[in-house]
Amino acid sequence: ASAADLEELKEQGFARIAIANEPPYTAVGADGKVSGAAPDVARVIFERLGVKEVVASISEYGAMIPGLQAGRHDAITAGLFMKPERCNAVAYSEPILCDAEAFAVKKGNPLKLTSYKDIADNANAKIGAPGGGTEEKLALQAGVPRDRVIVVPDGQSGIKMLQDGRIDVYSLPVLSIHDLMDKAKDPNLEVVAPVVGAPVYCDGAAFRKQDVALRDAFDVELKKLKESGEFAKLIEPYGFSAKAAMSTTRDKQCAAAQ
Amino acid sequence: MEWDWDFVWQIMPTLLEGFKITILATVLGAAVAAVIGLALAIARRSPIAAVSRTVGFVSEFIRGTPLLVQLYFIFYVLPDIGIRLSPLVAGVIGIGVHYATYTAEVYRAGIENVPRGQWEAAKAANLTTRQAWIHVILPQAVPPMIPALANYFIAMFKETPLLSAITVLELMNQAKSIANSNYRYIEPMTLVGVFFLVVSLISVVGLRWLEERYARMDD
Amino acid sequence: MASPIIRIDNIVKRFGPLTVLDGLSIDVMPGEKLALIGPSGSGKTTILRILMTLETISGGHIEVDGEQLYHMKKGADLVPADERHLHRMRKKIGMVFQHFNLFPHKCVLDNVTLAPMLTQGVTRADAEKRAMELLDMVGMADKAKSVPAQLSGGQKQRVAIARALALSPKIMLFDEVTSALDPELVEEVLSVMKRLAAETDMTMLLVTHEMGFAHDFADRVLFFDRGKIVEEGKPEEIFRNPRQERTQIFLRKIIAAGHRV
Amino acid sequence: MASPIIRIDNIVKRFGPLTVLDGLSIDVMPGEKLALIGPSGSGKTTILRILMTLETISGGHIEVDGEQLYHMKKGADLVPADERHLHRMRKKIGMVFQHFNLFPHKCVLDNVTLAPMLTQGVTRADAEKRAMELLDMVGMADKAKSVPAQLSGGQKQRVAIARALALSPKIMLFDEVTSALDPELVEEVLSVMKRLAAETDMTMLLVTHEMGFAHDFADRVLFFDRGKIVEEGKPEEIFRNPRQERTQIFLRKIIAAGHRV
Amino acid sequence: MIDWSGYLSLILEGALVTLQLTVMGSALALVMAFLAGLGRLSRFFLVRALATTYIEFFRGTSIFVQLFWVYFVLPFAGFTLTPLQAGVLALGLNVGAYAAEVVRGAVKAVGREQTEACTALNLSRYQRMRHVILPQALPLMLPTFCNNAIELLKGTAVVSLISLTDLTFQAQVVRAQTGNTLIPFTTILILYFAMAWVISVSMRWLERRMTRNLDGVRI
Ligand SMILES: Nc1ncnc2c1ncn2[C@@H]1O[C@H](COP(=O)(O)OP(=O)(O)OP(=O)(O)O)[C@@H](O)[C@H]1O
Ligand SMILES: Nc1ncnc2c1ncn2[C@@H]1O[C@H](COP(=O)(O)OP(=O)(O)OP(=O)(O)O)[C@@H](O)[C@H]1O
Ligand SMILES: [Mg+2]
Ligand SMILES: [Mg+2]
Question: How many whole angstroms separate alpha carbon D82 and alpha carbon C134?
Answer without folding.
Answer: 57
